[in-house]
Amino acid sequence: MGGRPGAGPAPGIGTGLLRVGGVLFLGLVLVAVGAGWWQVVQAGQLTSDPRDPLRLWVARNVERGRILDARGVAVAADTVRADGTRVRRYRSLPMAPITGYRSLLLGTAGLERTYDELLAGIDGLAAGGGMLRKLRAEPWQPVDLTLSVDARFQAMAARLLGDRRGAVVAIEPATGRILVLASTPGYDPNRLADPTTARAYLAELSTDDGSPLLGRATQGRYVPGSVLKVVTAIAALESGRVRRGTTFPEQPAESRRGMRVDGARFRDSPRTVQLDEPLDLAEAMEVSSNVWFARAVLEAGAETFLAVGRRLGFGSAIAFDLPTSSSQLDGGGSRAGFADRVELASAGFGQGEVLVTPLQMAMVAAAVANDGVLMAPRLVDRLSDAAGRVVTPGSRSMGRVMSSGSASAVASAMERAVEGTYAGPYAGGAKVPGVRTAGKSGTAELAPGEVPHSWFVGFAPAEAPRIAIAVVVEHGGAGSSAAVPIGGRLMRAYLERFDPAR
To answer: CB within 8 A of 137, min separation 6: which ones?
Structure first.
């Protein structure tokens, strides 16, 4: 029987089966690859979605990792209620600006958000982390966080701020370890974690004109006033056009009558001392001469001023465990960021368009204290799990931000600002008894009729610093009246009671 004209021989049964088998095999491979991709490689991304049902199940049924202070005392841990549900319990309310909260209704904030997957056990310290979680016998491995902050020291900072709005940041200069990160007014994270009170309390906090949910230490942006003179001194020295012994012949007369810059007049705060001879850097820092620092920043130039600021962290958000706002030296004008010489001169003594966070100013003080090397700030000393695995985050240098010579000159000037003969009305109140202390006070002028912000930055001991600090009290008046004594008491308390190396 003849076939169709031109048709080739029909394929054999074996060939057809091979083709079908090949197609089926390819399909199975694609299914396996897809399943592996979604269940292993993309598992972490899928379970990081707060709406993921598995994530919600873990939050309700798996004990979350604890947050411990520097002594190993739990400041955040799960508790089980009578009905069997888990709820987060916070044992130190002043630590709320650091820990944040974990709420089944509202989500997370603070370190509870930053380290959410580790605390929940979705990610972990085992090899492969969350990607290989499904292959382990125990899939959930919550991680405990041990912080660099002693909750007792944090509570002292909050207590000294009292019912005033403000913030304190303290840093270990050589490592970047945060020692205090206080913000007032505060809030009770327990009421946000409790499903029966969470929504009503959030509504209450959201309408509070004190903005208690704002982390003032890292996100509050303030006019700095004279504490910014530390940055100006660094920039002036780094420019090479100003030295520690530089004086300006016009300054004595200008300190009495005012200094004119393109039609604007700048004045020193009234004083009866150090008016007869031109001041050098240390003398100007001691009596907080606006005129000297205005002249110094004009001598250094806008480009150098801004370049030094960028090295210190100004102009961008600081990489940190918590959200941060950026600090600024200029208002974005057409002359290297400044509108004119008037704005630049004003910025030299912390007015103009300058805005800073307390964290930024603590980092400035820490960089001076650490011989010009700026360390990245960090809150977590240790991560550990029930299996005994431990990860210790190391300190990270952000680089040398000023020469050793510049750091030495500024440190000496800051020491004179606390220890000097005429320091009393300025930063003298921060003196730690028996310890060489360095610092700078600030009175940040605001709109006419508004009470100024009170500032202090400093470090101690001056010769071998173990703590650098920044304090701001909103509308606290002169720096010497509010921020300076807080800074002095906290530095003393740390050196005498809370420093592990004491």
So the answer is: none
Q: What average pLDDT does range 259-287 have in this prediction?
A: 95
* Rounded (10°) angle between helices 229-239 and 358-369: 50
HSE of 237 in the Cβ direction (CA atoms, 13 Å)? 26
Backbone angles phi, psi at 225, to 5 degrees: 60, -145
Average pLDDT over residues 262-287: 95
CB atoms within 10 A of CB 345: 25
**Tokens of residue 25, six digits:** 């095999």
Say how far residue 415 (Cα) sits from the centre of its chain: 25
Give the pLDDT confidence of 49-78 residue by residue, as tens digits.
556 676 667 777 789 999 999 999 999 999
Q: How many CA atoms lie within 13 A of 55 on its CB side?
A: 19
Residue 367, φ and ψ in degrees, nearest 5: -65, -40
pTM, two decimal places = 0.89
Find the helix or strand (DSSP H, E) in which 310 lies. helix 302-312
Closest by CA position to 417, among listed 385, 443, 439, 448? 439
- Which two three-digit tokens encode residue 176? 């970047």
